[in-house]
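Task: sequence design from structure.
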């Protein structure tokens, strides 16, 4: 990806985060990125193409984040690493993840297949650990970590380490 393409995506991300996807015109993205609007169309096709590139980057980062979880063979480690996942986001990445959450809510899109590998790993871990309803437990834990992620990004935890420790304890980890 060229520097200009990166500048375009950075500008689009910042504007989508502050003004919303629907309220952001490609002309505004071009001005913020310091490029012509035509260059946006050349590289991304249209505003939806910009959005798609941002969402694809998010999907790639999500898969990288949980890849080390699904590679675990010990079911307790699958649970531990899943619980630790939202707490491992570095502060430098908060703006990117805030944008992902904002877009998910604004666009009302939640492709379930993004999280399927993690879901299947959790379901298998809960099954191996003898939980009565592994599928529901997997759903519950994914929703829990999604909520933790949102709360962390909003700065709603006074002490995130206590929340993580409590959750680990509740799962006997």
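Answer:
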């Amino acid at each position: 990806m060229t520097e200009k393409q990166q500048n375009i995506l950075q500008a689009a991300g910042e504007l989508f985060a502050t003004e919303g996807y629907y309220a952001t015109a490609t002309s505004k993205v071009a001005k913020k990125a310091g490029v012509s609007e035509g260059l946006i169309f050349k590289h991304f096709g249209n505003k939806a193409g910009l959005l798609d590139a941002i969402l694809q980057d998010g999907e790639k980062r999500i898969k990288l984040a949980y890849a080390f979880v699904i590679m675990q063979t010990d079911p307790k480690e699958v649970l531990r690493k899943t619980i630790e996942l939202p707490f491992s986001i570095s502060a430098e990445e908060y703006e990117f993840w805030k944008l992902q959450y904002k877009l998910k809510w604004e666009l009302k899109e939640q492709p379930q297949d993004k999280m399927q590998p993690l879901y299947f790993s959790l379901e298998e871990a809960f099954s191996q650990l003898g939980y009565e309803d592994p599928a529901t437990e997997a759903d519950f834990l994914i929703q829990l970590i999604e909520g933790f992620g949102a709360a962390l990004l909003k700065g709603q935890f006074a002490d995130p380490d206590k929340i993580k420790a409590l959750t680990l304890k509740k799962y006997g980890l």
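The first helix runs from residue 3 to 19.
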